[in-house]
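Hi L.,

You mentioned the student needs an example of a multi-chain input paired with its predicted structure. This one should do, with 752 residues in total across all chains.
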Amino acid sequence: MTYNFDWSVLWRGQSGLWLLQGLVTTIEISVVAWVVAFTLGIFSGAVRTVSITPLRWLASFYVEFFRNVPLLVWMFFWYFAVPPLLPQPLQDWLFDHGAEFWAGVVALGVYHGARFSEVMRSGIQSIPKTLFEAAVSTGLTMAQAYRLIIIPIALRLIIPPATNESLNLIKNSSVALTIGVAELTFQTRQIETYTAKAFEALTAGTLIYLVLCLAIATTMSQLEKRFAIPGMITKRQTGEF
Amino acid sequence: MDFAVVINNVGFLIFQGFLGLGNFTGGTLRLAVPAIIFGFILGIFIGMGRLARSRWIYLPATLYVEFFRGVPLVMVIFWFWFIIPVVVGKSLPEYSVALAAFVIFEAAYFGEIVRAGIQSVPRGQAEAATATGLTRAQTMRHVILPQALRNMIPSLVTQCIVLLKDTSLASIIGYVDLTKAAQIVNNREIRPFELYLFIAVIYWLCSYGMSRYARHIERRLAVNPA
Amino acid sequence: MKRLLLLLATFISVAGSITVARAETTLEKISQTGIFTIGTRTGSPPFAYVNKNNEWVGFSIDLVETSILPLISKKLNKQIKLEKKESAPNTRIPLLTSNAVDLIAETMTDTQSRREQVDFSLTFFATGAQFLVKRGTPIKGIQTIAGKRIAAQQGSTNAKIIRERVPTAKLLEFPDQPAAFQALAQGQVQAYTNDGIQLAGLKAKAPKPDEWAIVGEFFSYEPYGMAMRKNDSDFRQVVNVGLMEAIESGKYFELYEKWFGPKGEVPYPLAPETKRFLQMQVVPK
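Structure written out for the whole complex:
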């Protein structure tokens, strides 16, 4: 029952190709989901700070509803439970065009949108209210004040927690393997299945994730230093989930 | 939409899936509660380790945290599932594997919370303690940690919520938690909408309940600044 | 940057220095722990599945419990407990090689390439691959699947054959049978390929069995064996003797009646040549 190490399985045969394809898919699903999440997050985070109660309530409902349920359950929900409810032609189109990828994108994007929303909200709330009042007193409408002044400043303030959430998104993309998305972790399983070399496959996958995450974290901390607003560094986020 | 499938199987879903009482190895709570306890204890050591003066403690602790925060939990679960039995030489029960993976992974996050908590205690406290003659260990035990713990409570509760949701990933290795129980029923009855909606509601109730509790504590602590 | 390099260096050196525990035979391991662990399925009726009472049952499980477990207990002179862990085509070999399970008792096809990684017991069932489709679809067999979306289990012999023989078919691989069947039920794929007997089991247990049809000639030969770690002859002997005694004493056919007989869960008559084949595997004492 000894385990024979054989690192060459990583580049012999299909394994190297599979790892590469997995990495590409991980990046694809993460980028698209990130755009969805970021957009939803900025919008709902900002809306949660306005004084119009129904709007605020709507945004809060979105956030509380989606972030309190595990991502895995959302994956199953969007992939298995939702398509049968769609009209038939749309279903057919989806199934011909990578339904599992899009279900994964929606699940990741909507879930992390709720989390980004919290980050955004904290960022906006840490801006002194006087800035908003000053903006409005110069004649800007509320929407313009947000668009031109508040949100750009908030974006610069939230770079550390936003980076944290972005990395969480990339790591959570691995959950999509449960619905058949051939991302990086799925491909390490694929290599294990066909070569029985679990150790080598897992090492390769882990290293790739580490490099990816640490590279992004380092880049973002450089960016943060460049864009930091002197005198307005936000307290390090410890309260978001 | 036919919720009979939920009603017929609610016993299985709740008792086996959520609580862990049944024929299969499983239970969301059975995994989450020990994981929180042991994860937190390990996290305290990791967190303090990151603030140690000796490089021999500081460096491994930091590498530990950086490593587990840079890899997906799914990957860590697979590591424990496939590799540990090989290293140890014998088969391990699913429960131990899942618990070990969660404790080790979440300890990195608990460690950061502990570290932030300790760092949020004003320096003056430590200085005053030393001035009254307490050693470093005594300062930590009697002055710093109690205050740090109070500051950490909101973040801790938040991390507990995260951990509860993360336990759903144990279903990937066949651990019959709430998510896996729903899958088992769904495989037989093919009613994903009703079943996944039901477990979503259960998770939601737990998470939302805990987050309201966190906010309640935050408000109470905010009244008495340290 | 420095931290990244240090982290990678630590990880690689830890990974590279992991040594493996001393080899021990399966029987020694079972004797030491008192537990015999099998890997089996949760969604492959009637071989191994979870029934309406949420009990884990099946033909393969029964075979192990009645024929192999008692023999192991007798051989080791102690009462051995049976534990079941879930396995699937893409996890069963790693589960075996990592010592997480001792025997794969489900629906695994014995093939020459798999024999390079694991050892197989005698063949305890024989069938062939077919397709499951919604009644009325134009797919009639392996000749008519070019360009269609086909589901298969990740790591199965069926997936491999489709990939090699019909590269124009769009193959979607799922982690296990229920996931693939759901995809078929929802229309994500137009056909699901697996061994005929398993498709019969799925169809019989489906909410509306008449909606489904099993089509096509057997496009492959699928002999089922129980898999175990390589080079473990004592254990293999016990398993094989257990199976042989079951066939000889008629216990096997009793179980077959229970699960596949006319009143069983999935009626599937035993072909006379299959029965003969099973009987001829029983070598004289």
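You could point out the following to them. The domain at 128-221 of chain C is CATH 3.40.190.10 (D-Maltodextrin-Binding Protein; domain 2). The mean pLDDT of chain C is 86.

Best wishes,
N.
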